[in-house]
Amino acid sequence: MTLNDKFFSRLIWIVSAVVLVVVIILKLVPPPANKPSFIYLLPHLIGGINATCSLLLILSLVFIKQKKIQAHKVTNVITFMLSAVFLIFYILFHLYEKDTKFGDVDHNGILSAVELAAVGSLRYVYFFILFTHILLAIVVLPLILISFLRGFSMQVERHKKIVRWAYPVWLYVAVTGVIVYLMISPYYNF
Length: 190
Prior knowledge:
Layout: H1 3-28, H2 42-65, H3 69-96, H4 113-119, H5 122-152, H6 156-184
């Protein structure tokens, strides 16, 4: 490992830790009183970005299987940039809005017995998908950054080794992001 690799490796872990800390802090601090009007567009944009990233990740795999290296690289850079926009939108939205409760039809922030009965066991399915999505989203960021570092520095064999793990996790996170959005969006109060 070169000095440059050590620097970028440390940077990757620092960036990953900072993102995690920021997301945790967002859960703990109260939202500002005044909310910009565009804030309620963000969940829909986030869902669209996740869907687009899912398709681009599949396209990237097709390109690399066809040995279209440049198309693979460009597709991954676009996907990475969209993921960065997703992260900015996610942080911005959760700065102003706290979590929506799955099944909260009357949008009062409390699930009544009637609301709980109405969603039934689907609530457990939602929480399983959400939990695995969040857990793997934490894990995938450093994997993506390391795979990008290795890919762009043409460490092809090392890139392949990490992508074997990073790719399915990234795709799972993108796809489950869409599923979580589709499941929670009926309960948004905006």
